[in-house]
Amino acid sequence: MGQSAFLRILVALAAPTLLAACGGGGDKPSSFAATPAAFSAAPGKTVAPGFGRSFVVQQGEKVGDARRTGFSALAANELTLSRDAQGAVSEIALTTPDLSTSWSKDDKQLALDDGLLVGYRSKAGRTQAAVIASPDQGGFAHQTFGFWYDVDAVSGLNRFGSLSAGEETAAADLPKSGKATFVGEATGMRTSAGDSLEFRIVRAQARIEADFARRSASFSTTGSSVGRDAQGEKILDESLDMTGALSAGADGRLSGKVRTAGGLSGGLDARFYGPDATEIGGIFALEGPGAESFSGGFGAKKQ
Fold it and tell me: Is the pLDDT of residue 23 over 70?
């Protein structure tokens, strides 16, 4: 990928106790759905309510000494996309219980990289970044998803969070019967600890099979990759492929359990987006022993 925005992020993470690897892209995304919606391509601002979970990894003084907290309770987030006169995203702003900041093209803090909007800022040993799926390139008219992090190389306090945001389908507008298949993408960050604390950006294809009559859905990802090799080919890691099951509450919002092929386990949270539930998106939060975790967001469109 060359000296892309992703690599700038990962170089910033590669402090003496950190090692990072770039996440590669999936298949070429489809074109933007040009219908009036939450994520219209028209110039101006779109403010999207969302939700997410976060966790903390505290790096100790000794190599390999890292402590991870459990995931937070589900919390409200807010994502704002600003577009210039040509309709291109020129700024993203994110508000969560742990982080409130923005990244703009004018300040050279925002780039579009392989279908992802990458916001990045580093100063005095502290790096704040967000990786958000581009609604335009992903073909999402009503949602987006991703993750963020706030890494302080001086204090060793590293915060990570997941995000799903958009125009949620009202419970009254959800289909009462029938089934639907949704296909899209998931992106997240995996942390693990050995001789050093390691962060890897992961991308995968996502598939959700929804049964509206039973108020349930299955979730799976395939083709998980953790970067590209020197020839530009994806570095696959099937151990990060996920399978899970979701059930809906009275409000139509879904939650459930998920596991990776490699044995990480945790929770899923999802919501339908757009009129008549034409899209679905959500977050995943999995953990393993020690500092090991895998969290991020996903989005998919009805087929």
Answer: no
The pTM assigned to this predicted structure is: 0.87
What is the bridge-based pairing of β-strands 179-193 and 197-211? antiparallel
Q: What is the pLDDT of residues 64-105, one digit of tens each?
A: 677 888 999 999 999 999 999 999 999 999 999 999 999 999
Q: How far apart, in whole angstroms, are the C-alpha atoms of residue 21 and residue 44?
A: 34
The CA-based angle 52-211-214, given to 5 degrees, is: 95
Q: Annotate 182-238 with DSSP letters as a single string.
A: EEEEEEEEEEEESSSEEEEEEEEEEEEEEETTTTEEEEEEEEEEEEE-TTS-EEE-G
Domain boundaries, the chain: 5-302
Q: Do 180 and 77 form a contact (C-beta atoms < 8 A)? A: no
- CB distance 143 to 206 below 8 Å: no
28 pLDDT band, cuts 50/70/90, is very low
Q: CB–CB of 200/227 below 8 Å? A: yes
* Cα–Cα distance list, 112 to 101, 108, 152, 233 (Å): 18, 11, 24, 20
Phi, psi of 9 (to 5 degrees): -60, -45
Query: At a CB cut-off of 8 Å and minimum separation 6, what does 155 contact?
Result: none
Which of the following CATH numbers is that of domain 5-302: 1.10.10.10, 3.40.50.300, 2.40.128.110, 2.40.160.90?
A: 2.40.160.90
Going by pLDDT thresholds of 50, 70 and 90, the confidence category of residue 30 is: very low
Whether 36 and 52 have beta carbons less than 8 Å apart is answered as no
Residue 195 pLDDT: 57
Instruction: Give yes or no for a contact between 256 and 247, defined as CB atoms under 8 angstroms apart.
Output: yes
